[in-house]
Amino acid sequence: MRRWILTLALGGLLAATAGAQGIIDRVQEVVLDNGMTFLLLNRGEAPVFSSVIRWNVGSVDEPMGLTGIAHMFEHMAFKGTTTVGTTGWEAERPALEALNAAGVALVRAQQDSAEAEEIARLRAEYDRLVEEHRQFVVSNELDEIYSAAGAEDLNAGTERDFTTYYVSLPANQLELWCLIEAGRIRDGVLREFYAERDVVHEERRMRYDTDPEGFLVEQFLGTAFIAHPYRFPTIGWATDIMNLTTEDAEEFFREHYAPVNACGALVGNFDLDEAERLIREHFSPIPAGERNRRVNTVEPAQRGERRVEVHWDASPIVLVGYHKPNAPDRTDAVFDVIQTLLTSGRSSRLYERMVKRDQIATDVEAFTFPGNKYPNLSTFYIQPRAPHTSADAERVLYEELERLASEPVTERELQRAINILVAAHVRGMANNMSLARDLTFWHFIGGDWRWTDRWYDLVRGVTAEDIMEAARTHYRRENRTVGVIVPRESAAATASPEVTP
Amino acid sequence: MMRALAALTLMPALAAAQAELDPANLSPPPPLEFDIPAVERIELPNGMILFFLEDHELPLVEVQTLTRTGSVYEPADKAGLASITATVMRTGGIEGMTGDALDAELDFQASAIEIGMGEESCSASLSCLTENLPRGLELLAAVLRTPQFAQEKIDLAINAERESVRRANDDPMGIARREFRSLIYGRGNPWARVTTGATLDAITRDDLVAFHQRFFHPNSTMIAVAGDVSREALLALLDEHFGDWPQAELDIPPLPEVPDSITPGIFFIHRPDVNQSNVRLGHFGVSRHDPDEYVIRVMNFLYGSSGFTSRLVREARTNRGLTYGISGQITEHTVRGLYVVATFTKSETTREMIDVIRQVTRDFQASPPAEAELELAKTSEMNSFVFRFETPISIASQRMNYEYHGYPADYLETYLDNIRAVTAEDVQRVAQERMHVDQTAILVVGNADEIGDQLTQLGEVTEVPLVDFATGEQIWP
Lengths: 501, 477
Known about the structure:
Chain A is an alpha+beta fold. In chain A, 50% of the residues lie in helices and 16% in strands. Chain A folds into two domains: 26-86 and 137-283, 2-Layer Sandwich (Cytochrome Bc1 Complex, Chain A, domain 1); 306-488, CATH 3.30.830.10.
C-alpha cells in the first residue's frame, strides 16, 4: 500500500513538473540596448495579463541615516509624471520646484535646530506653497487612468532586496501599460512628497509601533545582523522618515533606477508580437545607466547566542534565526526542504510535535528571512500555548533541531517535503502574477529566469545526508538569535528564562 | 535643486513628443473580445448541485463545496461550536482512518483538503494533482460524510481556540473590528458573536456530532470542480463517492434578526503601548438583493472602496497625510450589512480624522458626482469585469456562490448593463438615504494619554469595557 502511494505520487509529480516546464520554456526574452530585460509569456485563457517590473534595488542600498528612502521613492512613483498627475507641466514646474525647495529648507532648519521663529516662518512658507501648487495637481491620476482601463492588483512593494511594481490589465491595454510604465521611469515627478511622508509614517505606526509582532521583528533583525544592512527596517526608522527630503529621493532615483537594473515580465493571454513592438518603442528611448553595485559588507560570523526581549501587553511570541547561505547556493535548497519538512503541513515534524502531540504551541512556521540576495536566516516563528512559555517552545525546537543534525530523516519524510515544494511550484504556474514575480525574481537571484524551474532540480536532489550536514553546520547555538515578546506582567515578575540547547 | 529635478524628469525636447506620451491622447484600444466561459450546472441524483469547468493547461484539479450551515446557527452559550465542528471534521478522523493518517497521506501527495466555517455557509476545498483526484475526492467525501470526531482532536481544537481567545486583545485593529460589530449588531447578537473561555468550556463531542448531522447533507451541498478532468470521469467519481449519500429533510432555521436601530455616539477603548488610534464609524448597511445594489456598488467606489480614486482616500490620505489606509462602504449581508468607515491615524490627529470623515461624507451627499467621476467608476467596474474569469476554479465557484446566495441565473450576463444604467442622481439619492453621518456609532481604540480631550470636544464619550474573553475579567476601565 505504502509503496503504491509512493509510486503514484511520484508519477504525478513528474508529469506535473513536465507540464510546468513546458510553460516556462515558452518564455520569450527581450533585452533592449539600454540593458532593460523583458520576459514575455503567453498562458491561460482569459484575455488579461499581469505585469511586474522588478528593480534590483531595495532598502539594503540606502545610505546611512536615510532608512526608508527606497520605500518612500516607491510611494512617489504613484504621484505621476510630466504628463500624468498635472494640469500642465510647464505651468506646474516652477511652483513644484519652489515648494520642494521650501520643504528641503524646512527639514534642514529642523535638523540644524534653528530658532523656533525661523522654523515657524519656513513652515508657513512651505504651507503657502503647498496650497499654491495644489491647483496644478490632478490627484491620483495614475490610479484613475489604470482604474478606468480595468486594472487589478495595482500596487508596489519595497523589500530589503528589491522594489517591485505590479498591475494586471485586460489584454487590449498593452500600449497604455507601456506609456505609463516607461513614463514613470523616464518622466517621473516628485509631487506631494511631504504629505506622502506622513502617510508612510502612519504605515510605520500601523505595522511596527502598534503591532507587537512587527515591533519584535524589527528588534530581532537588528540583533541578528550587526554589520549587514539586513538589520535595518525597510519602512525606515521613525526619525529617518521624518528627515527625508525630495533631494534624497532624487539622489536615490538617479543612483539606482537605470534600465539595466530592471526586469519586466508580462504573463497572460496577450499578443506577443505586439507587446514586443510596443516595449521596444516605449522603453528603448530611456537612457542607459550604471549597473547597481552589490552591498559589499559581509556579516561577520556569529560567535555566540544573541537574545532580545520586547515587553508588551500581549501574549508571547518567539522568533529564532540561524545565519545561512542564500540562493542560488545549493545549501539554500537544502534549507527549503528542511523548513518544509519541519513545518509545512499537519504531518510535518514540528507541527506534529509542538502543536499536535505536546500541545505547547498553536502555530509554528519556518522560513527564509529577511531577503534572498545576501546570506540570510533560517527563521522559526512560534506562538506558544498558555500555560506553556516561550522557554518551553525554545527547548522543544532545539531538541528537534539537534535530532535533525544527528539522525537522518526517513526517505518518506524527505520525499513528502520535496513533493510539497514541487507541487507548490506547479500551482504557482496557474497564476499570471505569481509567474511574473518568479521569473523576475530568478532573473536577478539566479542571473537567469530559467532558474524558475532549475531551482526544483536542486530541490529534488536534496538527500538525507545534506540535511544532517546543513543542520549540523548552521543550527548551532552560537549561530542563533532569539527574540521574544514577554507579556508585561510576567516581565515584571520574573527574570529572563534560562534556556540551554 | 533645479539641476536635480531636471535630471530626474529629463524633459522631452519637443512639445509634440510630450503630447504623444500623454496617456490622455492615446486612442481607445481595440475592443476586448471575450465570452464568459460556460460553466456546466448539473443536478446530481443525490441532490448535490455540480458546477463544472474543464481545463487542461496544468495537471491540477481544484474542488470547492458549499454547505448551508454557519456560525449564526450555533447556540449563544456555545459560541465557537460551528467553527470547531468544521476544524475537527478535517482533523478528527474519517471512517477507517485516523486524522493523523489522513494528514500524512494528504501531505505526502501534496494534496490539500481544508474546511472553513462562515457565518452562513461552510466551505470545503480539495486541491490536488490530476493523478490524485480519485483518492482526493474519496477523502473529501469522507470528511463531509463520516467524520469521527476523535475526542483528542476536539480537545486540540478547543485548546487552540482558547489560545486565540487569549490573544484576542493583542492587536488594536482586531479589537476595533470586533467591538464595532458588537456596537452595531448588539453585544451577543449572532452576527457579532464572540467566542469566550466559557462558551468553549460548554462544547462537548455530542454537540459536534449533532451539529454535523443536522446540517451536512447532499441536498444542502453544492460542489464546484475545475481543472484537468473530463466530465465523464468526474461524474463517475462523484457517483462513486457521493452517490449513496442519503438525502435528508433539511432543518435550517430562519436567519437571526438584528435590532431595528443602533445607539449612536462616541465610544472609546484605551490601549497602552500604542501611538495610533484605530477609528471606525458607521451604522447598519443593507440586505442582499437590495433594489439599489448596483447603485451602491458604484457609490462605494466613489465614496471609499476603490483605493486611491475614492473621496475618502483623496482627502484623508493624499491631501492630508493623515493615514496609510482608509476605506468606506455600505456592505450587503443576507440580513443586514454595515455602513462602515475604517481607518487609523496618529493619536494627535484622531479628532481631525473624524472631522474629515464627516465632512467628506456631507460633501459627497450634497451634490451628485461629476459626470467624469461617475464615468470613471462605471468604466473601471466594467473593464475589470474580465478578471472575475481569470482562473477556472474562480469561474466555477463564482457561479456556485451566486446561486447559493439567491442571485438570478443571468446575474453575470446582465451585470454590465446594470452598472451602465446607474446615474449621478441615483448615487446622490442613495448616499443621502443610506448614510446618516450624524447618527453613527464612532469607535476609537487608542491611547488615552496621547489622545487627551480630542474626543470629548466632539461630545459625550462612552467607555466600552475591554474584556479578557479567556477569563471573563474586565481589563479596562
